[in-house]
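S.,

Sequence below, as promised.
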Amino acid sequence: MVEDQLTSPEDDEKTRPPVSALRFDTSAELFAEMSQLRELIQLRPEAEESGLDFLHRLAESATPEDAVTFTAFAAQPKMAVWWGYECLRNLRSDFSHADRELLEMIAHWSANGETALRYRIMQIALFSEHRTAAVMLGLAAGWSGQQIAPNDPAPIPAGRAPRAVNAAVLSALAQCHLANRPLHLKKLVTLSEPLFRGF
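The prediction came back faster than expected:
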């Protein structure tokens, strides 16, 4: 009967599978599939090493910035943009008026995923005079969907959004006082950790 096929809203909430914040189940899969990541990071995850453990090993390596790069590539594109937004918000408070407006749009898009808003963010970022951290994050948001624009059906390469997130976060970090960078980098890793928990 039709009635037997209907489910209540409570049942829908109970039966929804958890959604991973990560592109792949393991770091090894991520490195196998994302050739650009292999070019950017020298270290490789070990066979039984969790993503969280690998993140910490990168953070303690000779190039701890690799933990930022790993997170930018490991997270699902929309999650990576949200993480990038949180990183920028924690690193700096002296954004220009235009950058603050763009970051507010990015935060709004991260929360609701409106395609029209993503196209608008992309348009603003593409025509910005300066490639600031906020603009790079705007480009990442634009490259996080299936199409770059309503009239452009060409698929977006998988590595484009994470590269832009990585550039946004690392450029914001580079503008921090040199003596404070280790502390700021540690904060960025802390912001990354929830993405890797449980996977």
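Residues 1-13 have pLDDT under 50 and may be disordered.

Coffee later?
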